What does this fold into?
Amino acid sequence: MSKLIVAEGFMQEHEVKGYFEILRESVIRSRSTMTAVFFKLANSSQGTDIERIQVNHQISAFLKSKIRKTDLLFQLADGVHWGIFFLQSSEVEVKAFLKRIFAILKQEREYQQIALKASITEIRNNSVNFETLLEKNKQKLADGEQPTWSIEQVTDYSVQPMEQVKVSIIEQNEIFRKVLETTINHLDIPHFNLEVATYEDGYSFLQSDSYKTGHMHLVVMNDILPRKNGLEILHILREMPNEKKFIIYMMSERNSEGATLNAYEGGVDEFIVKPFNLRLLEAKIRRTFARFWL
Amino acid sequence: MIELSISFLLTAIVVFLVILFLFAIYLLFQHQREIRFSNTRDTFLQNHSQHWYNYLMNDEIFSVVLVPRGRAQVAAIEKIFSSYLKNIMDEKVEHKIKEFSNLYLKKFYEKDLSSKRWSIRMNALYRIADFQIDELLDTCQQFEKDKISEGEYFQLLKIYSTFQPELFIEKIKESSVNYSESEYRRLFVLLEDDVFIRLFEEFDSWNKNIQLASIDTAAVKRNMQYIDKLKQLLTHEVSEIKIRALKGLYEIGVIDEIDPYVPFVKSDMWEVRLMVAKIFKHVPLNYTYAYLELLLEDENWWVRSQAAKTMAENREGIAKLQQFMESSNDQYAIEMAQETVVRRQGIK
It folds into this structure.
């Protein structure tokens, strides 16, 4: 039985578990993908103990020198696996990283006795726990069939959860209000579920209290509205403590720089001059939501 | 004393009561008619708004249920079309509305044009222009021969400007009516670029209101091809035209050379100097600093204020203003510079 080799100054498996749980929850809250990579020595049983200790230290030092400050590097308790959590990074970026470091390891003479294989898990939901994650990746790297320098993938956690978004349309013209409602209802935005409500004036929107919930809230409104106008609503929403949850689109008949500037300075996210193309509105909404997940 | 017999009085009362009764019946009938009209219109809107959406936006095939039966349904369709045209810009939708109106609404508006009521005729003229019912152009020309009001003629000009620009220019030339500047602007803004250019090229042949309206329209259209013509107007003898041309050039916002504007820095009219100070916003500060310094020391408050604002909008503007405050002897100019610097720093 070979001796366990654990590099010093490294985070260990039991220490990382707590961090992982926090990171996993922040994936959902901040809507940013995290990707886990696990490495295993492809030739771990070869060589003497001393040689293996040397290789082990060399790998640890090499990986440490290549990661960013936001990445979390650790070694597993068995001594032959390493893991890195790449925060705010998708599988694509991590694959590029792996290709880069594998190329260096293959090229440089000092690393000639090192041969690795890796396994990637993109994490976009919180249904994974640390033990299962380790288990699945270890399984991927377990048998000797995968060639050296191969990159395996665990895809079980790469689908983000469906998020509920409230959409409020505030428009006085009944026909156009229905047009907007139908258009937005037909919009299929991956991973977001739009719940559309319509209001004919500003006051009824404010009375509805729907804007007080914690959901992300898209407000599509006219600048001029009966009872409470759009600019007043904009001001009220932007004064709220959790104003960041509002995405505010303002529609206006005024095509002047002054009006546009005023609206943007007041806090709108998009200012759309009427008449406009509905496809443009759809495209803008799609882009707005596409920016939410890395 | 006038003597009236009881029987005469009774007869008069009965006659009045009968008239009153008939009048009440008439009012009731009219009221019922109006209610029926709005009910039919609202039911059509309720039942067919979605069909219209599917036809106009989703390319669904045309259905006969969309064809109006009676005035109330025409009113409903007017409401739908107006809402779409006012809020949505889509060539396909505009084309479908045009096609439909030429086919199914034409006969209604044709009849409306011969109505005795001015409001009905005006409504028809508005709809013909909005829904692009070009098949009624001949009818409109016939209509022009009748005795029509100024408002109707103005609306006719709008129709000509979209359906037959040649005719529009002809009518403008021969027109005996002299419209206000803003009315001309409303007409010109609808013109296609090539027609407007022709109108703009014949600048000197127009009356003053048309001239001023065409300069303002060129500015609103923000088209670079009007820059040369506007520059030519800078040498015009009428100072109002000069000021408007400067304003137009400022609005378009593309200043390719400053030489044509430099002489205006020393113009006798403060409005001209003000416009130059505005125009220099669109030119890098190192080309204009010397002139802006002069304008900052201008005798007019508006000019000084604009010169300071123009400088402050530049990245190095604040530093330049501070430098100016140290070197200038003009107390008014220094105060203006100081005020602008404080305001700008307040914003940041």
Chain B touches chain A through 15 residues (CB under 8 Å). The mean pLDDT of chain B is 85.
